[in-house]
Specification:
This is Lipoprotein. By secondary structure, this protein is mainly alpha-helical. It contains seven helices and no strands. The protein is elongated, with a radius of gyration of 19 Å.
Length: 205
């Protein structure tokens, strides 16, 4: 049970390189952008476009925390009920860690230069937190059922729920419907890394 492990790993490598050796990158202080602004823009519009691109870069690096965590999820060991319970709990723990890191970095982003960016961020944080809470509840049930084979089997069957949910999330939901964010997504390197497989990057399914 390992959804699109290869895709996770490929995205994680790209994002890791973008983040300069997997260290902390500060997009707000980024160097001038690689791509020139659109033609006919005023100085104020150029500054706004650049600021939006830096914000999008930070957003995509935040999402990259989840991608990297999911690229390291352990295999579920079905050899015994006890091992399946333990490895299912470990899988959810890895997922929860990635969600926590992503939400933390999204919250740390500066205010978006365009109001729609704040709505996109708020919706993403809410969605990630909801999935995280459901994953934590299932993990708690798994841990409590470790010595009860019948309860363990039931808990194991529930472990796929949060995994299915996170696999279907569009990691850049909302960007495509806002022209400024759509442009920033095309200009920001971390966002381009996420969208190599398509304009709506997902972790699986």
């Amino acid at each position: 049970m390992r959804p699109r492990k290869t895709l996770f790993a490929a995205l994680a490598v790209s994002i890791c390189v973008t983040a300069v050796g997997c260290g902390e990158r500060q997009p707000q202080n980024a160097e001038p952008l690689e791509q020139p602004p659109g033609p006919g823009l005023t100085s104020a519009e150029v500054q706004r476009e650049d600021a939006t691109t830096r914000w999008a870069e930070g957003y995509c690096l935040a999402v990259g925390e989840l991608v990297r965590s999911m690229s390291t999820i352990p295999m579920i060991d079905p050899s015994t009920t006890q091992r399946a319970t333990r490895t299912s709990s470990e899988l959810l723990g890895t997922m929860i860690t990635g969600l926590d890191r992503t939400v933390s970095r999204l919250r740390d982003l500066a205010e978006a230069p365009v109001p729609a960016g704040e709505r996109v961020r708020a919706k993403a944080i809410s969605e990630y937190n909801a999935i995280r809470d459901r994953a934590a509840a299932v993990k708690q049930t798994l841990d409590a059922a470790a010595q009860d084979p019948a309860a363990s089997r039931q808990a194991i069957s529930a472990a796929g729920g949060p995994l299915d949910e996170i696999g279907k999330v569009n990691l850049l939901a909302g960007f495509e419907s806002v022209p400024e964010l759509a442009t920033a997504r095309e200009r920001a390197q971390a966002c381009r890394d996420l969208t190599k497989q398509g304009p709506e990057p997902r972790l699986g399914y």
